[in-house]
């Protein structure tokens, strides 16, 4: 059936839309695009329906702006939710370095050009018990830089166990990174078994480096074996090839001391075992901004910094400033479990990811009880439940941290409707469905957000049946 209604004029639609909370050229572009789609569909609804449809498109676009959300998933380092949130000290640093000029590459003592991030690199090396350290955009960039550096000459082969040819998160596959870096992959062993002899057999004149990748986002059990870092380091030393370890998460604290967690190797530990260079992310368990940290032998770190490609991977003053404060806090925190005695014990100042790992279930239960009370009168059943929080972000896949949840069962809508409405709220609240309940894990919700969560739930319920 042919629809003969005319396409409404752009101006008329814009007037009907009013203020959509987006820059005007953006609104105009969306209106034009939606009208063009309607024209192509050759089925033009009434004016109000057209405006309604465009309003929804604008709202979807507006929702996609980066903004704070409340994380009730229990996944502490949630890559889709921006990984590690930053603490107040780090935020204060960001504010200061963002608004003013800085001594980023200026030596205040001489008044001449200075070295970028020298203080940060100095302290990072100290924290990792390394000769030297440096920073690039992320751990993937750190890997690419190292691979390119070591495979730039005649030696092109990167020796890696078949058990470590992993995919980490979306679009990050170790074999692809190797290929993109111009390296030739030399696989050894099998998926579940790789021996020292397997490595020894293939290391030869074509070997550029041996790469060890920490199996951070999955766990392999059963008939599984691979040489220890120390054994591999001894072999690499004997064969005179560099050994690089990609640790991924970069925990500097003793994770085994936290409830429910296994031991996660620290950068200092693997370097002590004889690895030449280690790399890890700044925004996973390290609790800082997105960055890729490289630590190890001074000669190698210096060579990496001389690579022309290093320039393309360098961080800006905001990241360097945020990381500098994160590192100093680690150095001051006894719970980091590192060798040198430290001064500051104020747990409030620790990176939020560390605080979330450490908060007790009693404390979470107390908060949940208050929230349940504050929800009295809303058309839903609210209760205190049990949850299993996770480190996430490809760290400690086997570790579940016993946690406490706020459990909701709405009386006038479906669970999925409640989830949708909470996501659409301001701020959006993200939870999960389990056992016929909508659950919000309190471990990943900041105590300061409890009131906001309660308010968001009231609002979602008020909106009436969906
Ligand atoms: C997360 C991870 C990476 C990627 O780190 P980004 O900082 O996101 O680039 C690389 N290797 C391992 C082992 C990881 O866990």
Q: Can you characterise this structure?
A:
It is a single chain. The chain has 16 helices and 15 strands. It has helices at about 10-15, 25-40, 45-65, 90-100, 120-125, 140-150, 175-180, 195-200, 230-240, 265-270, 300-305, 315-330, 350-360, 360-375, 415-425, 450-460; strands at about 70, 105, 110-115, 130-135, 155-160, 185-190, 205-215, 245-250, 275-280, 290-295, 380-390, 395-410, 430, 430-435, 435-440. It has three domains: about 10-65, no CATH class; about 70-80 and about 355-460, Aspartate Aminotransferase, domain 1 (Alpha-Beta Complex); about 90-330, Aspartate Aminotransferase, domain 2, CATH 3.40.640.10. α2 packs across α3, α4 (about 90-100) runs antiparallel to α12 and α5 (about 120-125) runs parallel beside α12 (about 315-330). It is globular. The protein is an alpha/beta fold and about 475 residues long. The strands form four sheets. It has a seven-stranded mixed beta sheet with strand order 4-10-9-8-7-5-6, sandwiched between helices. The model is unreliable at about 335-345 (pLDDT under 50).
């Amino acid at each position: 059936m042919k629809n003969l209604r005319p396409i409404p004029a752009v101006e008329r639609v814009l007037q009907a839309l009013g203020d959509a909370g987006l820059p005007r050229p953006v609104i105009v572009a969306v209106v034009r695009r939606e009208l063009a789609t309607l024209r192509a569909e050759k089925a033009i609804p009434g004016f109000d329906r057209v405006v309604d449809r465009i309003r929804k498109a604008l709202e979807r676009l507006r929702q996609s702006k980066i903004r704070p959300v409340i994380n009730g998933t229990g996944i502490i380092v949630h890559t889709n939710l921006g990984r590690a949130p930053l603490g107040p000290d780090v935020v204060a640093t960001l504010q200061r370095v963002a608004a003013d000029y800085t001594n980023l590459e200026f030596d205040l003592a001489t008044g001449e050009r200075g070295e970028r991030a020298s203080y940060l690199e100095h302290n990072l090396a100290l924290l990792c018990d390394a000769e030297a350290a440096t920073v690039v955009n992320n751990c993937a960039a750190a890997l690419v830089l190292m691979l390119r550096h070591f495979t730039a000459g005649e030696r092109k082969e990167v020796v890696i166990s078949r058990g470590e040819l992993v995919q980490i998160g979306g679009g990050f596959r170790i074999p692809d990174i190797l290929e993109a870096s111009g390296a030739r992959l030399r696989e050894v062993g099998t998926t579940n078994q790789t021996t020292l002899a397997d490595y020894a057999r293939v290391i030869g004149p074509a070997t550029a480096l041996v790469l060890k990748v920490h199996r951070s986002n999955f766990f392999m059990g059963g008939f599984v074996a691979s040489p220890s870092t120390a054994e591999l380091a001894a072999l690499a030393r004997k064969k005179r090839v560099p050994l690089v370890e990609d640790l991924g998460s970069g925990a500097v604290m003793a994770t085994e001391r936290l409830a429910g967690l296994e031991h996660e190797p620290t950068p200092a530990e693997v370097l002590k075992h004889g690895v030449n260079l280690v790399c890890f992310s700044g925004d996973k368990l390290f609790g800082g901004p997105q960055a890729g940290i490289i630590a190890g032998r001074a000669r190698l770190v210096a060579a990496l910094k001389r690579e022309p490609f290093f320039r393309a991977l360098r961080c800006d003053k905001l990241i360097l400033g945020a990381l500098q404060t994160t590192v100093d806090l680690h150095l001051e925190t006894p719970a980091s479990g590192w060798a040198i005695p430290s001064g500051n014990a104020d747990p409030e100042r620790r990176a939020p990811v560390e605080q979330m790992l450490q908060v007790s279930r009693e404390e979470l239960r107390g908060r949940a009880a208050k929230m349940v009370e504050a929800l009295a009168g809303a058309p839903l059943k609210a209760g205190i439940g049990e949850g299993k929080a996770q480190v996430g972000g490809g760290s400690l896949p086997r570790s579940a941290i016993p946690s406490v949840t706020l459990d909701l069962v709405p009386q006038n809508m479906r669970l999925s409707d409640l989830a949708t409405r909470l996501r659409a709220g301001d701020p959006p609240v993200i939870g999960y469905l389990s056992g016929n309940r909508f659950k919000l894990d309190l471990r990943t919700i900041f105590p300061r957000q409890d009131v906001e969560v309660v308010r968001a739930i009231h609002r979602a319920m008020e909106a009436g049946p969906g």
